[in-house]
Amino acid sequence: MSGTLLSLFLGLSVFQSSSDSIRRHYEAAEAHRKANNLKEARSEFQAILAEAYDKLGKIYIARKSYKEGIAALEQAARYAPDSVEASLELSIAYFDG
After folding, report:
1. What whole-number distance in Å separates Cα of residue 46 and Cα of residue 12?
2. Hey, where are the domains in the chain?
3. Residue 45: is its pLDDT beyond 60?
4. pLDDT(5) > 60
5. What is the CATH number of domain 16-96?
6. Coil, helix or strand for 63?
7. What global pTM score does this model have?
8. Torsion sign across C-alpha atoms 18, 47, 53, 89
9. Could you give the residue ranges of the DSSP H alpha helices within 35-65?
């Protein structure tokens, strides 16, 4: 498999796993919302936002758009304050930017 094809395949599998994760969080959030477990629903919706902002931030950073990337990663860290990964990504963005 060529390097470009392998990169495309790996990129698609990461995208797929990310969309699966978001879908699982959404389904859990809706189940909690319907059961009137609003605290748990909110937590799941926040996980969606954290993951989406993280992915967006990584895209901006890869494009060397550091200002936008840092802003998105700051939001990811806001929605996932206990996430070591979010803090690490943001720290790296601050350093690179």
Report:
1. 24
2. 16-96
3. yes
4. no
5. 1.25.40
6. coil
7. 0.75
8. negative
9. 38-62
